[in-house]
Amino acid sequence: MEKNTPIEFEKPGTISDPLTELLRIGARKLIEAAIQAELAEFLHQFESRKTSEGKRGVIRNGYQPEREILTGIGAVSVRIPKVRSRTGEPVTFQSALVPPYVRKTKSLEAALPWLYLKGISTGEMQEALSVLVGPEAKGLSPGVIRRLKESWVQEYAEWTKRRLDKDRWVYLWADGIYSGIRASQDRLCALVIVGVNDRGEKHFLAIEDGMRESIQSWKDVLLNLKERGLFSPKLAVGDGAMGFWGALEEVFPQTVHQRCWVHKTANVLNYLPDSLQEKAKKGLHEIWMSEGREHAQKAFDTFLKTYEAKYPKATECLLKDRESLLAFYDFPAEHWIHIRTTNPIESTFATIRHRTDQARGCFTKETILTMMFKLGLCAEKRWRKIKGFTHLALVLEGKTFKDGVLEGDSKQDAA
To answer: Crossing angle for the helix pair 293-307 and 312-319, nearest 10 degrees?
Structure first.
């Protein structure tokens, strides 16, 4: 006789994919932060109420039992704080965001970064949070919204001062990113640096206001990183048209330079007529996709001979960065896909630009930087380790690689 085997079904609202889980966690943190801001505003009203001993009359007193509200991304657990009166007068804290009767919300209409954007840059916190808890929730007061924004500004300020010497940083990617929204009269340019540590994890190291072409702006950023414990990275990747390189020479002179092939390709093609761009792009592709430096050098020379007579500006643009365009050949082949371009920054901020382009109005630089910081860290959580991260230790040890292969490695040579 067969035994009856119970079949376990998933609970309603169970999260099954990593992205939805990420959004759910972010939604919970967003709601928690808003509720804490509500509580701070509520307690502020009773600052003048004191006990006979001069102590505060109304204080925090733990939490109500945790409960779930259903959203379009599944069930989100929330905890509502409790307060206690020391003076005998009854006081009860009720969240306007998540009142006792709210159990179900409307579908999530936007990704979590958009909620951050709406909340920080436009002041439309009520609209952003209503996406999560629905129109049943009462509007948040201006004081609560102000406190929530201030907490994010403080979070960014603390992030810019955190120590970096807990990790060994191997590679850097740098770029100057113009925001899609205006700060005062001009578009803000964020000087962005992403680093990869010896475990292969990518993290934002800097998101600072500055001038893209200014050596001094980048020097200020790099000196700040150095003071916080960043030791000389082995390789830095970026666009040639930045003050970053001059600053790098001063602050980390031993770091190898690698020009971004995506930026360089676009710059070279700008000097060629449309009719030749497809062919020229294939010629450039032949250089940086070569198996080794020797073949890349030959492809480089072929490109120069093909276009230098009629289009000298195009070939001059390519030739001036010859060595730094091919620097990646001295590093593990598994890393080439990561270090030939600034893609970790480009792909992340393409999404951020899309979000910021939807914002209207003029905002302070602090507001925009805070917004870019929140969006950036949200995107960072989805980053994977770089390929071949086990080779990073060899790079840090100063081991020599030729055409991506560790010299003296008989196994790789045989392959």
So the answer is: 160
